[in-house]
Amino acid sequence: MTAPVIAYNTFVVAVGVAAVGFAAGVVGSLCVLRKRALVGDAAAHATLVGVACGFLVTGRRDLATLLAAALVSAVAGLGAMVLLRRFTRTRDDAAIAIVIGVSFGLGITLVSGIPAWGYADSAGLEQFLLGHTAALTAADATLLASVACVAAIVVAIGLKEATLVAFDAAFAAASGWPVAVIDYLLVALVAVMVVAGLPAVGAVLVTALVVIPPVAARFWTDRVGTMLLLAGVIGLVAALVGVAVSAMRPGLATGPLVVLAAAAIFGVSFLIAPERGWIARRIRARTLADAWSRGLALDACLRAAGAGDGTFTPVDVEAAVAGDRQGGRRAGAEAFAALVRTAAVAPVAGGRDAWRLTAAGRALAEERRRRLDAWARVIEHDPDDAREALTIDLPAPGAVLGRTGAGS
Amino acid sequence: MNAAASGPSPASSSARPPLVDFHDVTVAYGRRPVVWNVDFEIDEPCLFGIIGPNGAGKSTLLKAALGLVPTVGGSVRFGGRPLREVRSRVGYVPQRETVDWDFPVNVMDVVLMGTYARLGWFRRPGARERELARASLDRVGLADLADRQIGRLSGGQQQRVFLARALAQEADIYFLDEPMAGVDMRSQEGIFRVLADLRAAGRLVIVVHHDLRTAAEWFDRVALIDMRLVATGPTAAVLTPENLRRTYAGHIEVLEELGRAVAARGRTS
Amino acid sequence: MVFDPSKNGLWCVWAAGGIACLAVAVAASGCGGTAGPSGRGRPRVVATTTVVADLVKQVGGDRVDVDCLMAAGIDPHSYKPTPRDADRLAGADLVVASGLHLEGKLAELLERLARARPVVMVGDSLPPDRLITVGGGQHDPHVWFDARLWSLGVAPVAEALARLDPPEADEYRERGRAYVARLEALDDRLGERIAAIPAGRRVLVTAHDAFRYFGRAYGIEVVGVQGTSTESEAGLGDINRLVDLVVTRGIPAIFVETSVSDRNVEALREGARARGHDVALGGRLHSDSLGGAGSGAETLEAALESNVATIVDGLKGAP
Amino acid sequence: MILLADGGLLGGHADIHAWAMATAAVVSASCALVGTLLVVRRMSLLGDAIGHAVLPGIAVAVLAGGRAGGPLVFVGAVMAALVTVWLTRGLRAGGGPEEDAGAGVVFTTLFALGVVIVSAAPPGTHIDPSCVLHGDLTFLPFDTVPVAGLPVPRAFIAGAITFSGLLAAAVATWKLQVFVAFDEAAARAAGLPVAAVTFGLLVATALATVASFDAVGAVLVVAMLVVPAAAAELLTRRLHTMAAVAVALAVVGACVGYLAAWRFSTSAAGMIAVVLGLEYGVAAVLAPGDGGLARVWGRLALAWRVAREDRLAAVWRAEESGGERGPATWRSLLERCAGWWLRADGSLVHTADGWRLSPRGRRDAEMIVRSHRLWEAWLGRHAELPLDHLHPPAEWVEHHLGAAMRQRLEAETGGRENDPHGREIPPEA
């Protein structure tokens, strides 16, 4: 790894970015759950207006003034978004897009106009926003850390209300919660975090850390509390990885690397998460479909065994399965091959392309039919909860229902 | 066993393949089955009801027939042919809440959509299509509302707009998903009368419906569904108390209990 | 009442199209106006950056109206053109730019503008072999920090002015020569003062990589935290490398710039202080643009003098 | 426009500004046209996503030797835009995040990739993030190409071609776009090529966005894509009218924006976005039916009518019950204004012992009292409400009953002469 003692700058940047990563992950989760993932982006764009107005009004360029002005305009921008949605027919995503476009346009207009309107020394106003992650100072890091703590505490305290509003705003309003106030609080929290993070790590990094960790966390858990914490941890880890890689070689911009680290974690989560992961879902869908096809094939064999000389050809079975499976011929052929593999069917001597059910195959087929009938009875007589136990791969009803106490 | 009145015998009664043939249709969301091994046929044009309690998979069965949801097993054939080949002859009336009624289109625009499948990519609807749309609107009694934005219609009127769109498609088989949900009595009457005209004109109309009273009154044949097929056939033969009990198993007991409780409290207060 | 202007509402599209065509028609009709130079007495020259504007002023004197697109203190990369700038450019008899891609996208445009009216790209008129390449076939555009090399760009400007205003041609060439002489004298003076800094400490660390020519011309090692363009983002690797350099070489001071944010330099100083080496902030250098009115660095000569003074003061000071 | 040119308002270089405006108009028209479909299909943030996500496409194209603003860079940007859309929808299909969260993940990642490519590229390569984000409309007119002897800006030609192409494609496939946007399930059931239609829209969005980069830069494209369409959605009720109005708003916005930028010497692209925002604001207020103004006006008109009618009824009741002054509510400001108004329009006449109803005033008052008492009678019969519960609902309903409704009420209450309180119901005038 790096030199035994971590370079001072790396340490400071690591602390600062990790704090932003954690806070953004936690607060971002609430935004993502509230279907407002890009609110961070809107806030980031709205800050340019604040910076320009701050300079115009106060004429000063020091960090505190511009930060305060940027915060005011970010909250105003997001407030406008909420108002747009309440008083006009415009929908959510259009409202966010309008705020992004118009506020940034106004920002650019002001910044470009300032030198022409006779204000000296207006250079670098815009630079104020394009922070370089690698150039964090101790002051920046402490600011970010404190904002992160505040954000985490506020969310921890208000988690119950925030989750309620995020899940079902109508119910929350009905049961007396001040939905509008909670909404504005969340919006203000995002604005504070974006404005604090902006000069330090830049707009795109903040937007990314508000969106990517929560979405990645969503793959691993179904509980809100765990999701918030996990998103925070993912943001933190992404920050540390990005910083470490960037410190290895000159020429690697730190901010974007943190984003790419977060994206990598998202990619991994998307693919291999146990329950909701893409691979898991594909496998589950596949195994269920194959099990069902094998069942149909067995059924067809049993039916054929009962008629004529009890033999059948693979083509008949494939046709029966194909007729019932959108996979068509291929599903039928696979099902039949599976039966052969499990010695459920055996070729009849005499060279004709004829097969018959083996004893084991017959037992399996009859067991499946028995389960079908048993489940049919369960469905008829018992209310919903018994039916919950039924799944496509036909578990033995007795064993499963034993738990729910209903008659099998 | 699948206590289906018309068993899954391969050779159907008449020489012609059935108009619509549900063959062992099974649909599952993830691991949980919603429609389980449903197997029945409809042989001649009629007003056919798919009846059952809420959450019984009626709509899912309909969507499976139209290829809108993937099936785990089984297939649906139309006159012996897969859906792909007969798409334009099949009309679909979706549930009302699947659509954003704030969408900037008016009644005529929506009804004209029924004719787009035949027009293909680039041809614009011409006089013939407009005439067809106006005729469809006439049949559902909305001719004078052609220019009104759809958001400004009542529930019943919106449902009839969807119906007019299906009529404009001049299909032979119509699937309607809960057309009577949230519709006032007078409009239900109007819609059922239009469906009866369709049947008289030799079309097959399949309706997912939940209200037993109007079902008995209007449908020629029904299928009772509660995740699996309970029974199918002529309405009178199928809607027996026994079949209803088996379809609404848990639900009826709950209803009866409720009825007894209300009656008891009524006496004492 | 529903705002439905007509049965099919297409008239709006035609109205919009109409406005656009009208604009085109006006453009076509008015194109004659800008063909030749206006031929009025004093030639109007538009310069892109303050450095170039100063050069034209030195050569043209008060015979020439010089208009500068980028105000003082503006970094060329964050320059936002306004329609008024288009007016200036359209009305200019001569356009003088710094060149070598300093002005970013504006560069291509000026190349095409050269067809309609005289354009001088100072950087591009210099002998390529004496330019510093920065990889990818590009040259470092900050040539004006090498006074002698920059003076080679004076002659083309003088010639352009001479062609533009023939009666004053000799005056322009004379002023040009005088300016070149002043620049060469300045070059020698700067060399001597930098040489006075003890060799070990002769290292100039700045926010962004704009002083290569200065280093080469006056024999001082130059290091920038950020790449040549103010837009590319510094990496942690760069900062750690520089902290090591500052600490091991015991560099007493590092410098910030007028048109670039100080964040990089601040981070550097803190890094060094953490390793026990206190680095002073050596003062603000003029990099991409000269000082504004009253800043004492309105001309290139004044700016270079002030830069060298700041550097010498910073590096020569108490160890 | 001609006035502007001749009047020298534009400093004598009218053609430069005219070309700039024409370019802005054509570009914003393309964006507005595509934006209409994006807004109604809730894909507005796609523009923002594409705006950021094209940086890697452009960076790679420049590294491969493409000239800024040249064809190679154009292709690179369009490819990056399509990758963005493909990834966003792919994530969604694979069980990933919702539409805008998915877009957020994709475009921030691609933008970061772009910055890394730019930073890691040999220093001094010309491309840098900010030139992608803030294009400039101002100097485009200088970059001209002779067309039929006339120097036409290259950007205008590209914009015009893009717009005409998009317009042609839109007009041709409009009906399918509308059907798929309105009811995708029914469209798929009817056998329409839903995937192809959606892909066509996404390609059009990529083209419109990338074509506008030179003029306004990545972020302001979002304003051009969404704002005119959102404003048009408030003003109109049908999609193609909405598209037409959106295009009109965009073109007017572009021209006015540019002129304002000239007047206040600010960035043209920024001012255009601001003007588009103002247009949206005006649309939100003026929208017929449910706009801000319409709603407020409706409430005010109703309150004014109720006050006038209450005042008339109060005077009538005072006369009916022997002339002492009506209830104390007369002194509220609205009531007093109503009183003055009624005097002004001749409903009330000043006589020796105070205000009396004129014949016309009396007829109006009787209708209000009749509605009031008929409603009380109806409630009394059908709602089994105790006597003192009848007055408040009637007090409100009386302003909303027309003659036809009164007739039905009279029929339903068996034509009784007086209300549950025993007071006589005035006959229909």
Describe the protein's architecture and organization.
The complex is a heterotetramer of chains A (408), B (269), C (319) and D (429). Chain A has 16 helices and 2 strands. Chain A has helices spanning 8-33, 39-58, 63-87, 92-116, 138-167, 169-174, 179-201, 203-218, 224-248, 254-272, 278-306, 314-324, 329-341, 359-381, 384-388, 397-404, and strands at 345-347, 355-357. In chain A, helix 1 runs antiparallel to helix 9 and helix 8 packs parallel to helix 10 (254-272). Chain B has 11 helices and 9 strands. In chain B, helix 5 (127-139) crosses helix 6. The longest helix of chain B is centred in the C-terminal third of the chain and has 20 residues, at 249-268. Chain B is globular and about 55 Å long. Chain B starts with 19 loop residues before the first strand and ends with a helix. With 429 residues, chain D is mainly alpha-helical. Chain D folds into 2 domains: 2-288, ABC transporter involved in vitamin B12 uptake, BtuC, CATH 1.10.3470.10; 295-412, Arc Repressor Mutant, subunit A, CATH 1.10.10.10. The model of chain D is unreliable at 1-8 (pLDDT under 50). The chains are: A mainly alpha (408), B alpha/beta (269), C alpha/beta (319), D mainly alpha (429). Chains in contact: A-B, A-C, A-D, B-D, C-D.
Shape of chain A: elongated
Could you name the ranges of chain B where pLDDT drops below 50 across 5 or more consecutive residues? 1-14
Please count the beta strands of chain A (DSSP E, at least 2 residues each): 2
| Structural class based on helices, strands and sheet pairing of chain B | alpha/beta
Give the tally of structural domains of chain B. 1
Broad CATH class of chain B: Alpha Beta
Could you tell me the CATH topology label of the largest domain in chain A: ABC transporter involved in vitamin B12 uptake, BtuC
The CATH topology annotation of chain B reads as: Rossmann fold
CA-atom Rg of chain B in angstroms: 20 Å
CATH architecture of the largest domain in chain A: Orthogonal Bundle
Distance between the termini of chain B: 49 Å
The tally of beta strands of chain B, per DSSP, is 9
- Treating each run of at least 4 consecutive H or I residues as one helix, how many helices of chain A? 16
Q: How far apart, in Å, are the first and last alpha carbons of chain A?
A: 63 Å
**Largest beta-sheet characterization of chain B:** 6 strands, mixed
CATH superfamily of the largest domain in chain A: ABC transporter involved in vitamin B12 uptake, BtuC
By CATH, the superfamily of chain B comes out as: P-loop containing nucleotide triphosphate hydrolases
Spatially, the strands of the biggest sheet of chain B line up as 5-6-7-3-8-9
Largest interface: C-D, 63 and 73 residues
